[in-house]
Amino acid sequence: MKALIFLFIFTQVISFSQTIEVDDQNFSPVEDFYKLNYLNGKNDGKGNTGIVGDNDISAAYLNPAAIDLKSRFQLNLQYSYKVPLSITIPIFSSGISYDLKHIFPAVYLGFGYRISDKFQTGFIYSNPGSMKRVYTNGFETADGGEIYNDFRIHSFGIPVTYKVNNLRFGLIADIKLRTVEYNGVTTLIDPNGNSTVKTDLWNINAQFGIKYDPVKDLSFGVTFTPGVKREIDYDEEIFVSPRFVNVAKYPMIIAGGFEYRFMKDKLRLSADYNFMQMSKIQGYKDKHDVNLGIEYMANKMTSLRFGFFTFFDNRNFNDPNISFSIAEGEFTQYFITAGFTYKAKNFDLSASVLDSHISPGMIK
């Protein structure tokens, strides 16, 4: 029997560190390589682009300014599924292995309301991120049970879009509840390896967006999400010294994109750039990713989509205070996407597939 010490999770953060604040990576975008559920509606099929374009309520979090409802009311329901992954960290004699698993359900429920041609709003509930990490390779609790970590994000958002001539302004007020549960770990209070440690974190933030149509067939857009930092309280003490304080950091995000339309709007090309100030989290570099997409309207009822986007490994191997066990670049992903929409009267059915098998690292 191997016991998993809860303090291990924080070793790489606090080793040789003299700072009081400790970046808790469980409450951060660090593990988004698997945690994200990609609930962006039909836009997932075209490379997860959508900073510009005529989006519906399903893609409000890509850019609230790009929401353009075609009817007075709209109801959207999404579900996503991720295939499990197995990862081995090459430390100790046999390494530490764990499986990353999908958590059911990963859903998005959106309601859109077109108040007028200029003003639109709605309400959204979603699970934008979730995963379960189950330790294998002989790791178990003192009584032979499963050791796992459970991470979930619940999001509640109210988007607002206002149009002035060829400009659209958007805002989405967002409340997120993040929960973490560790089962079967050794803490300072319970050294027997059967402890369960839980905590949750409420966070309020906002995303701002602009969409600009300089000419009929060309659109530009930009979004801004301010960074936030919160202190975390676990239900058990995890540090020997009271000098250490756990903090959650959600870095600033700036994104921009454009869309060009051909063939009387039957063919659309889109490209987005996403910047996240991950250097605010110890051991990480700023994150830069690109998204490319194409959408073709085959007929009045059917649209086809294809795309590509990156998810680069942004761990900072030059940080002298951090030591990573997994080689640089192993978390880089290159996604190829495809999707379609079939339109019927007052009803649209969309499906998308996102695949990263062409990625150079272990996450495929």
Fold blueprint:
Elements: E1 4-5, H1 11-14, E2 21-23, H2 32-35, E3 73-79, E4 85-89, E5 96-101, E6 107-114, E7 119-126, E8 130-135, E9 148-164, E10 167-186, E11 195-215, E12 218-225, E13 228-231, E14 245-250, E15 253-262, E16 267-276, E17 287-297, E18 302-311, E19 333-344, E20 347-355
Parallel strand pairs: 1-10, 2-14
Antiparallel strand pairs: 3-6, 4-5, 5-8, 6-7, 7-9, 8-9, 9-10, 10-11, 11-12, 12-15, 13-14, 15-16, 16-17, 17-18, 18-19, 19-20
Q: Could you name the key traits of this structure?
A:
mainly beta; disordered N terminus; 364 residues; 17-stranded mixed β-sheet; 50% strand; 3-stranded mixed β-sheet; globular
Descriptive notes:
The structure is a single chain. By secondary structure, this protein is an all-beta fold. It has 2 helices and 20 strands. It has helices at 11-14, 32-35, and strands at residues 4-5, 21-23, 73-79, 85-89, 96-101, 107-114, 119-126, 130-135, 148-164, 167-186, 195-215, 218-225, 228-231, 245-250, 253-262, 267-276, 287-297, 302-311, 333-344, 347-355. The protein has a 17-stranded mixed β-sheet that branches. Strands 2-14-13 form a 3-stranded mixed β-sheet, with no helix packed on it. Mean pLDDT is 87; it is low at 1-17.
